Amino acid sequence: MAMTGLEIFKLLPKTNCKDCGKPTCLAFAMALAQKKASLDECPEVSDEAKTALSESAAPPIKKVTVGAGDKALSAGEETVLYRHEEKFYHPTAIAVTVDDADAEADARLEKAKKLNFIRVGLPMELNAVAVTNSSGDAGKFVETAKKADSLGLPLVLISDSADNLKAAGEALADKKPLLAAARDEAGVSALAPLSKEKGLPIVVEAGTIDALADLVEKAKAAGAENIFLSFGKAGPRDAFENLTKLRRLALRKGFRTLGFPIFTDTRVSEDVFEAASAAAISIAKYGGVLVTDLITPEAIYPLMTLRQNIYTDPQKPIQVEPRLYKVGDADENSPLFFTTNFSLTYFSVEGDVEASRIPSWILAVDTEGTSVLTAYSGDKLNEKVVAQAFQKCEVEKHVKHKKLIIPGHVAVMSGKLEEALPGWTILVGPKESSYIPRYIQDMWK
Hints:
The structure is a single chain. This protein has 17 helices and 17 strands. It is α/β, with parallel strands linked by helices and 445 residues long. The protein folds into three domains: 5-57, Electron transport complex subunit B, putative Fe-S cluster (3-methyladenine DNA Glycosylase II, Chain A, domain 3, Orthogonal Bundle); 64-310, Dihydropteroate synthase-like (TIM Barrel, Alpha-Beta Barrel), CATH 3.20.20; 324-443, 3-Layer(aba) Sandwich (Rossmann fold), CATH 3.40.50.11600. Helix 6 runs parallel beside helix 7, helix 9 (236-251) packs parallel to helix 10 and helix 10 (272-284) runs parallel beside helix 11. The longest helix is centred in the middle third of the chain and has 16 residues, at 236-251. The termini are far apart.
Protein backbone atom coordinates (compact mmCIF):
# COMPACT_ATOMS: atom_id res chain seq x y z
CA MET A 1 0.00 0.00 0.00
CA ALA A 2 1.06 3.61 -0.47
CA MET A 3 3.01 5.10 2.41
CA THR A 4 1.60 7.87 4.57
CA GLY A 5 3.33 11.22 4.87
CA LEU A 6 4.84 10.29 8.24
CA GLU A 7 6.15 6.97 6.92
CA ILE A 8 7.80 8.80 4.02
CA PHE A 9 9.21 11.42 6.40
CA LYS A 10 11.12 8.72 8.30
CA LEU A 11 13.05 7.90 5.10
CA LEU A 12 14.00 11.49 4.28
CA PRO A 13 17.28 13.14 5.43
CA LYS A 14 15.42 15.52 7.83
CA THR A 15 17.81 18.41 7.09
CA ASN A 16 15.09 20.92 6.12
CA CYS A 17 17.43 22.20 3.39
CA LYS A 18 14.52 23.67 1.37
CA ASP A 19 16.17 22.62 -1.92
CA CYS A 20 12.96 20.80 -2.81
CA GLY A 21 11.00 24.03 -2.58
CA LYS A 22 9.21 23.04 0.62
CA PRO A 23 9.95 24.65 4.02
CA THR A 24 10.55 21.35 5.82
CA CYS A 25 11.16 17.68 5.09
CA LEU A 26 7.79 16.91 6.67
CA ALA A 27 6.03 19.25 4.24
CA PHE A 28 7.86 17.56 1.37
CA ALA A 29 6.83 14.13 2.71
CA MET A 30 3.20 15.21 2.81
CA ALA A 31 3.45 16.48 -0.77
CA LEU A 32 4.94 13.15 -1.85
CA ALA A 33 2.11 11.24 -0.16
CA GLN A 34 -0.42 13.38 -2.05
CA LYS A 35 1.47 12.87 -5.33
CA LYS A 36 2.09 16.62 -5.56
CA ALA A 37 5.88 16.29 -5.59
CA SER A 38 8.56 14.02 -7.04
CA LEU A 39 11.30 12.28 -5.07
CA ASP A 40 13.80 13.62 -7.63
CA GLU A 41 13.29 17.06 -6.11
CA CYS A 42 15.21 15.98 -2.98
CA PRO A 43 18.98 16.06 -3.67
CA GLU A 44 19.98 14.41 -0.39
CA VAL A 45 17.73 11.35 -0.31
CA SER A 46 19.57 8.02 0.10
CA ASP A 47 19.53 5.15 -2.39
CA GLU A 48 17.83 2.94 0.19
CA ALA A 49 15.05 5.48 0.60
CA LYS A 50 14.67 5.79 -3.16
CA THR A 51 14.23 2.02 -3.47
CA ALA A 52 11.69 1.85 -0.64
CA LEU A 53 9.72 4.83 -1.89
CA SER A 54 9.72 3.71 -5.53
CA GLU A 55 8.26 0.36 -4.50
CA SER A 56 5.61 2.12 -2.46
CA ALA A 57 4.83 4.54 -5.27
CA ALA A 58 4.41 1.77 -7.86
CA PRO A 59 0.80 1.49 -9.08
CA PRO A 60 -1.19 -1.10 -7.11
CA ILE A 61 -2.12 -2.70 -10.43
CA LYS A 62 0.81 -3.28 -12.77
CA LYS A 63 0.65 -1.90 -16.29
CA VAL A 64 0.86 -4.67 -18.89
CA THR A 65 1.13 -4.11 -22.65
CA VAL A 66 -0.17 -6.43 -25.37
CA GLY A 67 1.04 -6.10 -28.94
CA ALA A 68 3.72 -3.96 -30.52
CA GLY A 69 3.75 -0.69 -32.44
CA ASP A 70 1.13 2.05 -32.60
CA LYS A 71 -1.80 -0.30 -32.01
CA ALA A 72 -0.38 -1.89 -28.85
CA LEU A 73 -2.86 -1.85 -25.97
CA SER A 74 -2.20 -1.35 -22.28
CA ALA A 75 -4.14 -2.46 -19.23
CA GLY A 76 -3.71 -1.96 -15.51
CA GLU A 77 -2.16 1.04 -13.75
CA GLU A 78 -5.55 1.88 -12.24
CA THR A 79 -5.68 3.54 -8.84
CA VAL A 80 -9.36 3.89 -7.89
CA LEU A 81 -12.51 1.81 -7.52
CA TYR A 82 -14.82 4.54 -8.79
CA ARG A 83 -14.03 6.89 -11.62
CA HIS A 84 -15.34 9.98 -9.79
CA GLU A 85 -12.48 9.54 -7.30
CA GLU A 86 -10.00 10.30 -10.08
CA LYS A 87 -10.52 8.59 -13.44
CA PHE A 88 -9.88 5.27 -15.16
CA TYR A 89 -6.81 5.29 -17.40
CA HIS A 90 -6.93 2.31 -19.75
CA PRO A 91 -10.27 1.47 -21.40
CA THR A 92 -11.23 -2.20 -21.58
CA ALA A 93 -9.76 -3.69 -24.75
CA ILE A 94 -12.33 -5.59 -26.84
CA ALA A 95 -11.09 -8.65 -28.75
CA VAL A 96 -13.31 -10.61 -31.15
CA THR A 97 -12.65 -14.29 -31.77
CA VAL A 98 -11.51 -16.12 -34.88
CA ASP A 99 -11.22 -19.90 -34.65
CA ASP A 100 -8.58 -21.94 -36.45
CA ALA A 101 -11.15 -24.64 -37.33
CA ASP A 102 -13.68 -22.19 -38.78
CA ALA A 103 -14.03 -22.40 -42.55
CA GLU A 104 -15.37 -18.83 -42.45
CA ALA A 105 -12.36 -17.44 -40.58
CA ASP A 106 -11.35 -15.17 -43.46
CA ALA A 107 -14.86 -13.74 -43.72
CA ARG A 108 -14.90 -13.21 -39.97
CA LEU A 109 -11.66 -11.25 -40.18
CA GLU A 110 -13.23 -9.07 -42.86
CA LYS A 111 -16.13 -8.35 -40.51
CA ALA A 112 -13.68 -7.47 -37.75
CA LYS A 113 -12.03 -4.88 -39.99
CA LYS A 114 -15.30 -2.96 -40.14
CA LEU A 115 -15.83 -2.69 -36.38
CA ASN A 116 -14.69 0.92 -36.17
CA PHE A 117 -17.09 3.76 -35.49
CA ILE A 118 -17.27 7.47 -34.72
CA ARG A 119 -19.45 8.64 -31.83
CA VAL A 120 -19.69 12.21 -30.53
CA GLY A 121 -16.71 13.00 -32.71
CA LEU A 122 -14.48 10.36 -31.11
CA PRO A 123 -13.29 7.08 -32.62
CA MET A 124 -14.49 3.78 -31.16
CA GLU A 125 -12.31 0.93 -32.36
CA LEU A 126 -11.78 -2.79 -32.06
CA ASN A 127 -8.61 -3.36 -30.05
CA ALA A 128 -7.51 -6.93 -30.68
CA VAL A 129 -8.22 -10.26 -32.36
CA ALA A 130 -8.45 -13.42 -30.26
CA VAL A 131 -7.41 -16.58 -32.12
CA THR A 132 -8.86 -19.77 -30.63
CA ASN A 133 -7.48 -23.26 -31.13
CA SER A 134 -10.47 -25.61 -31.21
CA SER A 135 -8.70 -27.71 -33.87
CA GLY A 136 -6.04 -28.66 -31.35
CA ASP A 137 -3.49 -28.44 -34.14
CA ALA A 138 -0.45 -26.22 -33.58
CA GLY A 139 0.12 -25.64 -37.30
CA LYS A 140 -3.42 -24.43 -37.95
CA PHE A 141 -3.23 -22.29 -34.83
CA VAL A 142 -0.09 -20.52 -36.01
CA GLU A 143 -1.43 -20.14 -39.56
CA THR A 144 -4.68 -18.55 -38.38
CA ALA A 145 -2.81 -16.28 -35.99
CA LYS A 146 -0.66 -15.02 -38.85
CA LYS A 147 -3.79 -14.31 -40.90
CA ALA A 148 -5.29 -12.42 -37.98
CA ASP A 149 -2.09 -10.42 -37.66
CA SER A 150 -2.83 -8.92 -41.08
CA LEU A 151 -5.38 -6.65 -39.39
CA GLY A 152 -2.53 -4.90 -37.61
CA LEU A 153 -4.13 -5.35 -34.18
CA PRO A 154 -2.71 -6.99 -31.06
CA LEU A 155 -3.30 -10.73 -30.84
CA VAL A 156 -4.75 -12.84 -28.05
CA LEU A 157 -3.88 -16.53 -28.49
CA ILE A 158 -6.23 -18.93 -26.69
CA SER A 159 -5.64 -22.67 -26.43
CA ASP A 160 -6.13 -25.54 -24.01
CA SER A 161 -2.70 -26.80 -25.07
CA ALA A 162 0.30 -25.12 -23.47
CA ASP A 163 2.49 -26.65 -26.19
CA ASN A 164 0.39 -25.05 -28.92
CA LEU A 165 0.53 -21.72 -27.11
CA LYS A 166 4.31 -22.00 -26.91
CA ALA A 167 4.53 -22.76 -30.63
CA ALA A 168 2.34 -19.81 -31.57
CA GLY A 169 4.04 -17.52 -29.07
CA GLU A 170 7.48 -18.33 -30.44
CA ALA A 171 6.33 -17.93 -34.05
CA LEU A 172 4.81 -14.51 -33.35
CA ALA A 173 7.04 -13.36 -30.51
CA ASP A 174 7.83 -10.04 -32.20
CA LYS A 175 4.09 -9.22 -32.17
CA LYS A 176 3.96 -9.60 -28.37
CA PRO A 177 0.70 -11.60 -28.30
CA LEU A 178 -1.17 -12.36 -25.09
CA LEU A 179 -1.06 -16.10 -24.33
CA ALA A 180 -4.15 -17.56 -22.64
CA ALA A 181 -3.92 -19.37 -20.41
CA ALA A 182 -1.80 -21.04 -17.75
CA ARG A 183 -4.44 -22.97 -15.79
CA ASP A 184 -2.27 -25.20 -13.61
CA GLU A 185 1.32 -25.73 -12.56
CA ALA A 186 2.13 -27.48 -15.83
CA GLY A 187 0.78 -24.51 -17.78
CA VAL A 188 2.78 -22.10 -15.66
CA SER A 189 5.93 -24.19 -16.15
CA ALA A 190 5.41 -24.08 -19.92
CA LEU A 191 4.45 -20.43 -20.38
CA ALA A 192 6.26 -18.50 -17.65
CA PRO A 193 9.78 -19.17 -19.02
CA LEU A 194 8.60 -18.13 -22.49
CA SER A 195 7.09 -14.98 -21.02
CA LYS A 196 10.40 -14.21 -19.31
CA GLU A 197 12.53 -14.94 -22.38
CA LYS A 198 10.40 -13.19 -25.01
CA GLY A 199 8.69 -10.59 -22.84
CA LEU A 200 5.24 -11.95 -23.70
CA PRO A 201 2.20 -11.31 -21.51
CA ILE A 202 0.40 -14.40 -20.24
CA VAL A 203 -2.96 -15.11 -18.63
CA VAL A 204 -2.98 -17.00 -15.34
CA GLU A 205 -6.36 -18.63 -14.75
CA ALA A 206 -7.93 -20.36 -11.77
CA GLY A 207 -11.37 -20.99 -10.33
CA THR A 208 -10.92 -19.26 -6.97
CA ILE A 209 -9.00 -16.29 -5.62
CA ASP A 210 -6.79 -18.48 -3.43
CA ALA A 211 -5.90 -20.78 -6.32
CA LEU A 212 -5.30 -17.78 -8.56
CA ALA A 213 -2.95 -16.15 -6.06
CA ASP A 214 -1.04 -19.42 -5.71
CA LEU A 215 -0.58 -19.78 -9.48
CA VAL A 216 0.46 -16.13 -9.85
CA GLU A 217 3.16 -16.60 -7.23
CA LYS A 218 4.46 -19.63 -9.12
CA ALA A 219 4.42 -17.69 -12.41
CA LYS A 220 6.33 -14.79 -10.84
CA ALA A 221 8.84 -17.20 -9.32
CA ALA A 222 9.39 -18.67 -12.79
CA GLY A 223 10.20 -15.22 -14.17
CA ALA A 224 6.87 -14.02 -15.60
CA GLU A 225 6.27 -10.32 -14.99
CA ASN A 226 3.55 -9.43 -17.48
CA ILE A 227 0.48 -11.21 -16.18
CA PHE A 228 -3.28 -11.00 -16.64
CA LEU A 229 -5.65 -12.56 -14.10
CA SER A 230 -8.63 -14.68 -15.13
CA PHE A 231 -11.36 -16.82 -13.64
CA GLY A 232 -12.14 -18.41 -17.01
CA LYS A 233 -15.62 -18.35 -18.50
CA ALA A 234 -17.70 -17.02 -15.63
CA GLY A 235 -21.38 -16.13 -15.80
CA PRO A 236 -22.53 -12.55 -15.14
CA ARG A 237 -23.10 -13.05 -11.40
CA ASP A 238 -19.78 -14.76 -10.71
CA ALA A 239 -17.93 -12.32 -12.96
CA PHE A 240 -19.40 -9.33 -11.13
CA GLU A 241 -18.39 -10.73 -7.76
CA ASN A 242 -14.92 -11.97 -8.73
CA LEU A 243 -13.83 -8.89 -10.66
CA THR A 244 -14.90 -6.63 -7.82
CA LYS A 245 -12.98 -8.72 -5.29
CA LEU A 246 -9.81 -8.59 -7.39
CA ARG A 247 -9.95 -4.82 -7.68
CA ARG A 248 -10.61 -4.35 -3.97
CA LEU A 249 -7.80 -6.71 -2.97
CA ALA A 250 -5.34 -4.80 -5.14
CA LEU A 251 -6.42 -1.29 -4.16
CA ARG A 252 -7.87 -1.50 -0.67
CA LYS A 253 -5.73 -4.30 0.73
CA GLY A 254 -2.56 -3.62 -1.23
CA PHE A 255 -2.29 -7.33 -2.14
CA ARG A 256 0.50 -7.13 -4.71
CA THR A 257 0.19 -10.79 -5.74
CA LEU A 258 -3.11 -9.96 -7.45
CA GLY A 259 -2.05 -6.48 -8.55
CA PHE A 260 -2.39 -7.25 -12.26
CA PRO A 261 -4.97 -6.37 -14.93
CA ILE A 262 -7.93 -8.67 -15.54
CA PHE A 263 -8.63 -10.87 -18.57
CA THR A 264 -12.26 -11.85 -19.11
CA ASP A 265 -13.53 -14.55 -21.46
CA THR A 266 -17.16 -13.61 -22.05
CA ARG A 267 -17.98 -16.53 -24.35
CA VAL A 268 -20.49 -17.85 -21.84
CA SER A 269 -23.52 -18.32 -24.07
CA GLU A 270 -24.60 -18.51 -27.69
CA ASP A 271 -27.45 -16.17 -26.82
CA VAL A 272 -26.51 -12.69 -28.01
CA PHE A 273 -28.12 -10.92 -25.06
CA GLU A 274 -26.44 -13.11 -22.44
CA ALA A 275 -23.07 -12.74 -24.17
CA ALA A 276 -23.53 -8.98 -24.39
CA SER A 277 -24.49 -8.83 -20.70
CA ALA A 278 -21.32 -10.71 -19.74
CA ALA A 279 -19.22 -8.36 -21.87
CA ALA A 280 -20.94 -5.30 -20.39
CA ILE A 281 -20.16 -6.48 -16.86
CA SER A 282 -16.52 -6.92 -17.84
CA ILE A 283 -16.39 -3.33 -19.08
CA ALA A 284 -18.20 -1.93 -16.06
CA LYS A 285 -16.26 -3.96 -13.50
CA TYR A 286 -12.62 -3.38 -14.34
CA GLY A 287 -11.90 -5.78 -17.22
CA GLY A 288 -8.55 -5.08 -18.89
CA VAL A 289 -9.01 -7.29 -21.95
CA LEU A 290 -12.29 -8.99 -22.82
CA VAL A 291 -12.80 -11.70 -25.42
CA THR A 292 -16.17 -12.08 -27.13
CA ASP A 293 -17.72 -14.11 -29.94
CA LEU A 294 -19.94 -11.14 -30.80
CA ILE A 295 -18.89 -9.56 -34.07
CA THR A 296 -21.90 -7.78 -35.58
CA PRO A 297 -21.98 -3.96 -35.46
CA GLU A 298 -25.29 -3.96 -33.59
CA ALA A 299 -23.73 -6.06 -30.81
CA ILE A 300 -20.31 -4.38 -30.63
CA TYR A 301 -21.40 -0.73 -30.97
CA PRO A 302 -23.34 -0.67 -27.66
CA LEU A 303 -20.37 -2.22 -25.85
CA MET A 304 -18.04 0.39 -27.28
CA THR A 305 -20.52 3.11 -26.32
CA LEU A 306 -20.63 1.80 -22.75
CA ARG A 307 -16.84 1.73 -22.65
CA GLN A 308 -16.57 5.27 -24.00
CA ASN A 309 -18.98 6.57 -21.37
CA ILE A 310 -17.26 4.84 -18.46
CA TYR A 311 -13.71 5.69 -19.47
CA THR A 312 -14.16 9.40 -20.09
CA ASP A 313 -12.71 11.69 -17.44
CA PRO A 314 -15.72 12.81 -15.34
CA GLN A 315 -13.86 16.01 -14.43
CA LYS A 316 -13.30 16.91 -18.08
CA PRO A 317 -16.51 16.60 -20.10
CA ILE A 318 -16.06 15.66 -23.74
CA GLN A 319 -16.40 18.86 -25.71
CA VAL A 320 -15.99 20.30 -29.18
CA GLU A 321 -14.21 23.50 -30.08
CA PRO A 322 -16.57 26.45 -29.50
CA ARG A 323 -16.97 28.01 -32.93
CA LEU A 324 -19.33 28.40 -35.90
CA TYR A 325 -19.79 25.10 -37.77
CA LYS A 326 -20.93 24.71 -41.35
CA VAL A 327 -23.26 21.79 -42.05
CA GLY A 328 -23.51 20.99 -45.73
CA ASP A 329 -23.19 23.73 -48.32
CA ALA A 330 -24.50 26.47 -46.04
CA ASP A 331 -24.63 30.06 -47.27
CA GLU A 332 -25.75 33.44 -45.95
CA ASN A 333 -29.42 32.44 -46.20
CA SER A 334 -29.12 29.11 -44.37
CA PRO A 335 -30.69 28.52 -40.93
CA LEU A 336 -28.58 29.33 -37.87
CA PHE A 337 -28.82 27.26 -34.68
CA PHE A 338 -26.95 27.60 -31.46
CA THR A 339 -26.19 24.89 -28.92
CA THR A 340 -23.53 24.16 -26.31
CA ASN A 341 -20.09 22.70 -26.94
CA PHE A 342 -20.83 19.51 -24.97
CA SER A 343 -19.95 16.83 -27.51
CA LEU A 344 -23.02 14.66 -27.02
CA THR A 345 -25.29 17.68 -27.39
CA TYR A 346 -23.44 19.15 -30.36
CA PHE A 347 -23.21 15.94 -32.38
CA SER A 348 -26.85 15.10 -31.68
CA VAL A 349 -27.84 18.48 -33.09
CA GLU A 350 -25.44 18.18 -36.02
CA GLY A 351 -26.73 14.72 -36.91
CA ASP A 352 -30.34 15.85 -36.89
CA VAL A 353 -29.53 18.99 -38.88
CA GLU A 354 -27.82 16.79 -41.47
CA ALA A 355 -30.89 14.53 -41.51
CA SER A 356 -33.01 17.52 -42.52
CA ARG A 357 -30.93 17.81 -45.73
CA ILE A 358 -31.06 21.58 -45.39
CA PRO A 359 -27.60 23.21 -45.23
CA SER A 360 -27.28 25.11 -41.96
CA TRP A 361 -24.96 26.82 -39.50
CA ILE A 362 -24.47 25.69 -35.89
CA LEU A 363 -22.90 28.02 -33.34
CA ALA A 364 -21.32 25.93 -30.56
CA VAL A 365 -21.21 28.21 -27.53
CA ASP A 366 -18.51 27.66 -24.91
CA THR A 367 -20.24 26.27 -21.83
CA GLU A 368 -17.19 24.35 -20.60
CA GLY A 369 -18.52 21.15 -22.10
CA THR A 370 -21.88 21.08 -20.31
CA SER A 371 -25.31 20.37 -21.77
CA VAL A 372 -27.97 23.01 -22.45
CA LEU A 373 -29.96 22.73 -19.22
CA THR A 374 -26.88 22.11 -17.07
CA ALA A 375 -25.16 25.16 -18.52
CA TYR A 376 -28.25 27.33 -18.17
CA SER A 377 -28.87 26.33 -14.55
CA GLY A 378 -25.21 27.01 -13.73
CA ASP A 379 -25.28 30.40 -15.51
CA LYS A 380 -22.73 29.19 -18.05
CA LEU A 381 -25.31 29.78 -20.76
CA ASN A 382 -26.96 33.20 -20.89
CA GLU A 383 -27.52 36.04 -23.34
CA LYS A 384 -24.07 37.51 -22.64
CA VAL A 385 -22.32 34.23 -23.43
CA VAL A 386 -24.23 33.89 -26.69
CA ALA A 387 -23.55 37.51 -27.66
CA GLN A 388 -19.84 37.05 -26.99
CA ALA A 389 -19.85 33.92 -29.16
CA PHE A 390 -21.56 35.89 -31.95
CA GLN A 391 -18.87 38.56 -31.82
CA LYS A 392 -15.95 36.15 -31.55
CA CYS A 393 -17.14 33.96 -34.44
CA GLU A 394 -18.17 36.95 -36.59
CA VAL A 395 -21.55 35.37 -37.23
CA GLU A 396 -22.93 38.36 -39.13
CA LYS A 397 -20.25 37.92 -41.80
CA HIS A 398 -21.68 34.49 -42.60
CA VAL A 399 -25.42 34.96 -42.02
CA LYS A 400 -27.51 37.83 -43.40
CA HIS A 401 -31.10 36.93 -42.44
CA LYS A 402 -30.65 37.73 -38.72
CA LYS A 403 -32.72 34.84 -37.41
CA LEU A 404 -31.39 32.63 -34.62
CA ILE A 405 -32.96 29.30 -33.66
CA ILE A 406 -32.42 28.52 -29.98
CA PRO A 407 -32.94 25.25 -28.04
CA GLY A 408 -36.52 24.82 -26.85
CA HIS A 409 -35.37 24.07 -23.31
CA VAL A 410 -34.10 27.65 -22.93
CA ALA A 411 -37.04 29.44 -24.54
CA VAL A 412 -36.98 31.75 -21.52
CA MET A 413 -33.77 33.28 -22.92
CA SER A 414 -35.47 34.60 -26.05
CA GLY A 415 -36.39 38.04 -24.67
CA LYS A 416 -32.94 38.82 -23.25
CA LEU A 417 -31.28 37.47 -26.39
CA GLU A 418 -33.22 39.93 -28.55
CA GLU A 419 -31.92 42.70 -26.29
CA ALA A 420 -28.34 41.40 -26.44
CA LEU A 421 -28.50 40.91 -30.23
CA PRO A 422 -30.17 44.06 -31.62
CA GLY A 423 -31.95 43.50 -34.89
CA TRP A 424 -32.05 39.70 -34.53
CA THR A 425 -35.21 37.64 -34.40
CA ILE A 426 -35.10 34.78 -31.92
CA LEU A 427 -36.94 31.62 -32.95
CA VAL A 428 -37.58 28.96 -30.32
CA GLY A 429 -36.64 25.56 -31.67
CA PRO A 430 -37.70 22.10 -30.51
CA LYS A 431 -36.75 20.76 -27.09
CA GLU A 432 -35.45 17.53 -28.62
CA SER A 433 -33.02 17.68 -31.54
CA SER A 434 -34.75 14.73 -33.22
CA TYR A 435 -37.56 17.14 -34.15
CA ILE A 436 -35.20 19.51 -35.98
CA PRO A 437 -35.82 18.10 -39.50
CA ARG A 438 -39.58 18.62 -39.25
CA TYR A 439 -39.10 21.97 -37.51
CA ILE A 440 -36.93 23.38 -40.31
CA GLN A 441 -39.28 22.17 -43.02
CA ASP A 442 -42.32 23.65 -41.28
CA MET A 443 -40.88 26.86 -39.82
CA TRP A 444 -37.98 27.98 -41.98
CA LYS A 445 -39.05 30.21 -44.80
